Predict the 3D structure of the following.
Amino acid sequence: QVQLVESGGGSVQAGGSLRLSCVASGFTYSRYCMAWFRQAPGAERERVATIASGGITTYADSVKGRFTISKDNAKNTLYLQMNSLKPEDTALYSCAADARRWYSCSTLNYNYWGQGTQVTVSS
């Protein structure tokens, strides 16, 4: 049974940083896509960043240069380093994973999801 558990969210002032973590238990595939999504109240869910098992990453234009997605295979953990945070980054951040494909991760409809961790950025 695959379980994704996020942590690291919180409240921070604009310009600050946070690092989100997502521990993936039961997800033992060697080829996969993983991603971070976010959803603000009243808004549609937005793909923030993706990473393929081979290491290729993609980012939404709104976070390029500020956010970095990475993974630690030994710890089965996905990370999202968020720097220079802005109030518009406020959202519930969720990680997602899928082993049906390990390329074109930015267009995948992910089949495993975590519950999310809240990020609030104040001005």
Summary: The mean pLDDT is 97. The two ends are 41 Å apart (CA to CA). Residues 12 and 63 are 17 Å apart (CA to CA).
